Amino acid sequence: MIATLKSTLAAMCGVTAIAAAAPAAADYPEKPITMIVAYSPGGGTDTAARTIAKYVEKHLGQRLVVENKAGAGGQIGFSALATAKPDGYEIGFINVPSIHLVKKLREGVPYEISDFDPIANIQLDPVVVAVAAESPYQTLADLLADAKAHPGELNIGADGPQSNNQLQLVVAEKALDVDFNFVAFDGTGPAVKATLGGELAASLPSASGATSQVESGRLRLLGVFADQRSPLFPDVPTVSEAAGTDVNSVGASMRGIAAPKGLAPEQKAVLEKAFAAVMEDPEFLAQAKSAGLPLQYMNAEEFGAYMSKADAELDSYVELLK
Amino acid sequence: MLEYLLMGAASLLDPAMLLAVVAGVVGGVIIGALPGLTSTMGVALLIPVTFSLPPQVGLAMLGGIYCASTYSGAISAILLNIPGTSASVATMLDGHPMAKAGEPGRAISLATFASAIGGIVSVLALLLLAPQLAEFSLRFGSPEYFLLALFGITVIASMSAGAMEKGLIAGALGLILSTVGVHPLTGTMRFTMDLPTLYDGIPLVVSLIGLYSIPEVIDLIRRARTSDGDGRGVDRSSPLRVLPELMSQKLNLLRSSVIGIIVGIVPGVGCSVGGFLAYDAAKRASKAPQTFGKGASEGIVASETGNNAVTGGTLIPLLTLGIPGNPVTAVLLGGIMIHGLRPGPELFTTNADVTYSFIFSLFLSNLLFIPVGLLLARYGLRVVQVPPAILAPIILALAIIGAYAMRGSVDDIWVMLAIGALGWGMAALAVPRAPLVLGLVLGTLAEGELARSLALVRGDVGAFALQLVTRPICLVLIVLCTFAIVHGIVQHRRNSKFLE
């Protein structure tokens, strides 16, 4: 009797489970999807997230609702995403390499990189070398020569500490065998301001953070940390080009979409398709261009491969950031 | 120039512009008056809405929120003794005592008109002097910031009239609390007890809510047994009757506006500091400094003029150099860029139509929050008639929601309650709480900038000391600090003698 009851119950549960799962695959998404953003409203990450959320709605068939879980340099939001239910209704906007740096630099961070299932990369914002317009350094070679002559004496500022910008600096210092005096600022804006005010030999902002100053002629770019020249600044050489030595551009700030591990493949396919479509949507592209968002699409596979590669490479630099 | 001005003024006749300003101001007044909802959040949440609007209309709306929310924190500060935003902490020092003395309407009217005047003077500075003032902001390096923060901390003396020792203890406590979190230069974690919510330091807005609303709730609960409300009549006098009083304080208005604008031009300092410094200056200049903290109209006027004058000031480096001075303007920068505009000289030439309409819309915003704020306050005034047994749970609920809403974090509610317990202890021992806020706001700035100044000279203390006495702005600030401390000591001695 009890056994029968048990099996009936089990069967019923099974049926309910299937009944619940079946429409999920076919009609997904049938309600708005939440997207966790690990930074506060109004920052660069948040603005990018809200812009894409607005335009992906058309391709997703449902609203994408931004939920800010800010704090602890992204740790709170990334952790929330890692432990979110993988039911397809909670995804996140993630920042590479920050998500790796937080994990590697801190004790007791409650997520692993393998907890995330990458869906698409949206943005790639390279780090650039910027000097004030009146600076004596006309080329990157000038700056490097002066740094070699005065090891540890030239001030170089950037958002920090332990930011992707500082990471790019230590990577470059190692590759180019130079030593700068790194000074951390509370964001890219203050670092750029200190460059304009003559407190720094150079600064390392993200390309998007330097655009307006470069256009107004107050800042001069000496190099871009990237494999190819940036479409934003076609006249500025890459650092590898200008220095004649290969410099890894792992410090570039990437922003993409990820889900918690365990998402149903059908749901993942729906999300992948929607984000691939929005990246070709002319309205979104026009909006991103006017807002200065440096877009760079990668599909799930490419984004996942980039993350694994970055994760492995960072191990050799992480000690230099501490 | 003249044609740009005419163009800007004419754009205000566009119904879409008017509607945007009205919407921004109404939203801003509500956001500012509710503790826990900040100007930053309001502006950030509206940016996506402005995508589809023409740039000048979208910016006018954001500007309306910014000006109105910076002002309306005063409403809850005066009526409830809970600052709506950190900018209204100094207003509370005299605003709430005046309200308690039966004149909440007068306090709110003073705050409203003073805010509008401060805001308008600062927009005038933005309109006429922006390029010149922007160069000044670039001359502010780390050593200057450090000294400015130090000067701000000397204001503690003014915040703790009659209880200098207690004020200093509270200020020191604020400074100590400001060291919690990641070290600004090295990234080392300090006193975080492994709680991620503390990694970025003790959140300021969350602490403000705890510090002021929890003691108020406890006080109300205690009174709930004995009374059904205050039994006071609602102050129904005309708001306009404060105008002669305000006009007799021309010097105070002008001084506070200038202080606010200067604080605004220096990126990274913020509205609350403008209010604090203006309050301090007014108290020092006043013929009756002993009335400050007990409902002095000069205090309310100075603080509100000062904090709203910061708004126009912060827009100067933002529009001319693309450097945001506080979180709100950082968000505003995003809003400007989203419309494809780039801060810099071309904003005043190629895009002059958008820029000047935006600036003119700020004049309108600063005028429009007068009726909107007074109307809201008219109903808000009834708060004093609500029986404590009803008011206490409402405030507690708002405090919890506000703490949570900041970052969507339950942990922040616990932080708020812990700070609330501290605030209750301070209130019970008659320790002033404003110095603690000041320490918390400026401690991070002072420490970070000191560390950065030293890092810039590679740790050479001698070189840093030399900078302090050779850079002109540093010298001025050192003189101001010395004056403030000496004046504070003399004043304290005189008061002590008087008491004996």
Helix fraction bin of chain B:
over 70%
DSSP, total strands of chain B = 2
Q: Which sequence of strands runs across the widest sheet of chain A?
A: 2-1-3-10-4-11
Q: Structural class of the secondary structure composition of chain A?
A: alpha/beta
The level-1 CATH class of the largest domain in chain A: Alpha Beta
Keywords (chain B): Membrane, Transmembrane, Transmembrane helix
Transmembrane segments (chain B): 20-47, 59-82, 107-130, 142-161, 167-185, 197-214, 257-279, 315-338, 358-377, 389-407, 413-431, 469-490
Organism (chain B): Seohaeicola zhoushanensis
Protein name (chain B): C4-dicarboxylate ABC transporter permease
General description of the model:
The complex is a heterodimer of chains A (322) and B (500). Chain A is α/β, with parallel strands linked by helices. Chain A is built from 13 helices and eleven strands. Chain A has helices at residues 2-27, 44-60, 75-82, 98-105, 140-149, 164-176, 188-196, 207-215, 239-243, 265-278, 282-291, 300-314, 318-321; strands at 33-37, 64-68, 90-96, 116-125, 128-132, 155-159, 181-185, 202-203, 219-224, 253-260, 295-298. The N and C termini of chain A lie far apart (65 Å). Chain A is globular and about 65 Å long. In chain A, the strands form three sheets. Chain A has a six-stranded mixed beta sheet with strand order 2-1-3-10-4-11, sandwiched between helices. Chain A has a three-stranded parallel beta sheet with strand order 7-6-8, sandwiched between helices. In chain A, 53% of the residues are buried. Chain A has two domains: 32-124 and 253-321, D-Maltodextrin-Binding Protein, domain 2 (3-Layer(aba) Sandwich), CATH 3.40.190.150; 128-243, D-Maltodextrin-Binding Protein, domain 2 (3-Layer(aba) Sandwich). Chain B is mostly helical and 500 residues long. Chain B has one domain (2-499). In chain B, 74% of the residues lie in helices and 1% in strands. Chain B is built from 21 helices and two strands. Chain B has helices at residues 2-11, 15-33, 39-50, 55-80, 89-100, 104-138, 142-154, 156-159, 164-177, 204-224, 243-247, 250-265, 271-285, 297-321, 327-338, 352-380, 388-407, 410-428, 434-456, 461-470, 472-499, and strands spanning 181-182, 189-190. Chain B has a two-stranded antiparallel ribbon. In chain B, a hairpin with a 6-residue loop joins strand 1 and strand 2. Chain B is globular, with a radius of gyration of 22 Å. The interface between A and B is large, with 58 and 55 residues.
